[in-house]
């Protein structure tokens, strides 16, 4: 199986981490997002949406991080994606929660416009309004994540064992570190991310993220939570 990915990509890293932790062997093909390789005709034939990740499994091609995670987990019968209908539905629910409201508002509405020049709005007033709106939305989602989805009783998103939802959600939440968010005001999120960071392959998988995104932005003046 071949995975088209980028090591900084928020949606690629959940697959990299899960595959490493589960012992799934993949062939890795970097798509250089920094140079716009994803928009070249050659890659557009792989994924017309011009995004990573993409998984090739023989004559079967699959896009979207969440779908790829579920496919890989099913192939190996991973407990991270339970067979029991209700437990599986809960994992699906959490993954959908991150993929819709949280990722849209926290990452694309608040974090990314502050750190990626290509996502900055061309007008300063529009930029400020975008970030302020995103911050308000992010505060809501973080409150739900900390108090309801995690709470004091859950080590992970779906109980006391890691699930696919943790692999997906943790990469989205940790993006906040790029603008200096430490989650001190959200103890359950901080505890959960601490547990994910303790996974054996977390440092290696996130090495490029910290090197090329977090470190260059240290000390900069961002709007924070």
Proportion of residues in extended strands: 5-15%
Structural class: alpha+beta
CATH arch. level architecture of the largest domain = Up-down Bundle
Helicity range = 40-55%
What is the total number of structural domains?
2
Instruction: Give the distance, in angstroms, between the N- and C-terminal Cα atoms.
Output: 40 Å
Number of helices: 9
Rg over CA atoms: 17 Å
Average per-residue pLDDT, rounded, comes to 97
Please report the first level of CATH classification, the CATH class of the largest domain.
Mainly Alpha
Report the principal-axis shape: globular
Task: Provide key terms for this protein.
alpha+beta, Glutathione S-transferase Yfyf (Class Pi), Chain A, domain 2, 9 helices, Glutaredoxin, 2 domains
Provide an overview of this structure.
The chain has a four-stranded mixed sheet, with helices on one face. By secondary structure, it is α+β, with helices and mostly antiparallel strands. The protein has helices at 13-22, 41-46, 65-76, 85-115, 124-150, 164-174, 187-197, 202-205, 207-214, and strands at residues 2-5, 27-30, 54-57, 60-63. Helix 1 (13-22) crosses helix 6 (164-174). It folds into two domains: 2-76, Glutaredoxin (3-Layer(aba) Sandwich); 85-217, Glutathione S-transferase Yfyf (Class Pi), Chain A, domain 2. It contains nine helices and four strands; from the N terminus they run βαβαββααααααα. The chain is globular, with a radius of gyration of 17 Å. Helix content is 53%, strand content 7%.
In a nutshell, what does this entry contain?
The chain has 225 residues and is of the alpha+beta class.
């Amino acid at each position: 199986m071949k995975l088209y990915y980028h090591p900084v990509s928020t949606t690629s890293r959940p697959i990299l981490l899960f595959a490493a932790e589960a012992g799934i062997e993949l062939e890795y093909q970097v798509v250089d997002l920094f140079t716009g390789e994803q928009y070249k005709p050659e890659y557009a034939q792989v994924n017309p949406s011009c995004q990573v990740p993409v998984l090739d499994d023989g004559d079967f091609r699959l896009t979207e991080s969440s779908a790829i995670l579920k496919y890989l987990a099913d192939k190996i019968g991973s407990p991270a994606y339970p067979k029991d209908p209700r437990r599986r539905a809960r994992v699906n629910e959490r993954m959908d929660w991150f993929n819709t409201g949280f990722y849209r508002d926290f990452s694309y509405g608040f974090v990314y416009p502050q750190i990626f020049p290509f996502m900055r709005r061309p007008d300063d007033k529009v930029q400020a309004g975008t970030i302020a709106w995103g911050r308000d939305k992010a505060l809501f989602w973080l409150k739900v994540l900390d108090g309801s989805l995690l709470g004091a009783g859950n080590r992970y998103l779906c109980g006391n064992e890691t699930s696919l939802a943790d692999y997906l959600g943790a990469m989205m939440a940790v993006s906040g570190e790029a603008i200096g968010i430490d989650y001190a005001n959200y103890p359950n999120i901080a505890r959960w991310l601490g547990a994910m960071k303790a996974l054996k392959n977390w440092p290696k998988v996130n090495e490029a993220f910290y090197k090329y995104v977090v470190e260059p932005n240290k000390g900069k003046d961002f709007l924070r939570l």
